[in-house]
Amino acid sequence: MKDSLLQVKYKALGMTRQLLCERPEQEALLLEILVNKMGDNVKQIASKAVYELNEVVKIHPVMKPVIVKEVMAFVWRDPKSQ
Q1: Which is it for the CA torsion 46, 50, 53, 58, positive or negative?
Q2: Which of 64, 66, 74, 9 lies closest to 38 in space, CA to CA?
Q3: CB-based burial of residue 49 (10 Å sphere; 0-12 exposed, 13-18 middle, 19+ buried)?
Q4: Could you tell me the CA-to-CA distances from 45 to 13, 23, 24, 48, 63 in Å, in that order?
């Protein structure tokens, strides 16, 4: 995710979503990674993160409250604490 190449970040986001949907053992960490990428400086990466989260909701609609909670925590997080 920290690679400077855009294509590598795109692939990493897709793999993170795939892992979240198929192997939920590290659900909290994978979800946090996807949500944090919504704040990426590159708007294409931030948009891709939102797309991948939307795909997770389509595949697993039961996860919607968990995703909303994580996104709300991201939105209301203090930017100075990063």
Answers
A1: negative
A2: 74
A3: buried
A4: 8, 23, 23, 5, 22
Nearest residue to 56 (alpha-carbon basis) of 68, 44, 45: 68
Residues of the chain with pLDDT under 50: none
Distances (CA, A) of 38 to 12, 18, 25, 56: 14, 17, 22, 15
- pTM comes to 0.85
Residue the block writes with tokens 């995710």 = 1
Take residue 75 and report the two structure tokens written for it. Answer: 């939105």
Structural contact between residues 63 and 28, judged by C-beta atoms closer than 8 angstroms: no
Cα-atom radius of gyration of the chain, to the nearest Å? 12
